[in-house]
Design brief:
This protein is an alpha/beta fold. It contains eight helices and nine strands. Strand 8 and strand 9 form a beta hairpin.
Length: 237
């Protein structure tokens, strides 16, 4: 079991402060919904967490270790930030084979990951023929290859049909119930409300609310609470 801990995170780009003193925890057995408007700092936070960009200050760790310091990162963290970067000429199966080899994972993980996301029937088709929802499923299969203890997902429901959305919800719930840690960035508030245990709301680069969903959303909808919280950050920098 692995805990994500983000503490005092600051990141600026050419004088623009993308995140300011962001801090929160995602614990094992919990699905944490990371919410915020476009440009609020969600993607920057995830990029720092996954070692894709360097923070100006603060830390983002998995059980106290930065992503770059993990000996076998694919076995600790499975991530999906953008399903659009897939090689269009490869089959889904070949994509996973390449990813498994790069992460020094057993080849038999490929078939298991394809089965887990329902992509076995389409595994030998070229990625260029996939719908957006199929690309998302392949991206999630890539995240699952290493049998990680943590999932970090950015808009994983993008392009999924209603059946796919339900499947994703059940997958994330089962992963957390088995002791895994899920950090889920999404704009689909209705889905977050159904699967998340905890919420972190970011507005204008700052955490404006964090805690159990049951405490933050009581007598109103998540949409109403979210809109009120993010509206209150207008002009804040």
């Amino acid at each position: 079991m692995t805990t994500i801990r983000i503490d005092g995170l600051h990141k600026s780009y050419r004088g623009f402060e993308a995140v300011h003193d962001v801090g929160f925890t995602a614990a094992p057995g919990r699905v944490v919904g990371l919410l915020g408007p476009n440009g609020a700092g969600k993607s920057t936070t995830l990029q720092v967490l996954l070692g894709l960009t360097r923070a100006d200050a603060g830390t983002a760790t998995f059980d106290g270790r930065r992503y770059a310091d993990l000996e076998h990162p694919a076995q600790v963290v499975g991530a999906l930030l953008d399903a659009g970067g897939l090689h269009p000429g490869r089959t889904g199966r070949d994509h996973l084979r390449v990813q498994a080899a790069a992460s020094r994972l057993p080849a038999d993980r490929v078939a298991a990951a394809l089965s887990a996301v329902g992509m076995t029937p389409a595994a030998d088709r070229r990625v260029r023929t996939y719908s957006l929802g199929m690309r998302q499923r392949l991206g999630i299969a890539t995240a699952l290859l290493g049998r990680p203890r943590v999932l970090v997902l950015d808009e994983p429901a993008n392009g999924l049909d209603p059946a796919g959305t339900r499947w994703l919800r059940e997958l994330l719930r089962a992963f957390a119930d088995d002791g895994g840690t899920v950090l889920l960035a999404s704009h689909v508030l209705a889905e977050v409300a159904q699967v998340a245990d905890d919420l972190v709301v970011i507005g204008q680069g700052r955490v404006v609310a964090a805690g159990p969903l049951s405490e933050l959303v009581t007598d109103r909808s998540l949409e109403d609470v979210y809109l009120d919280l993010t509206a209150a950050t207008e002009g804040v920098r």
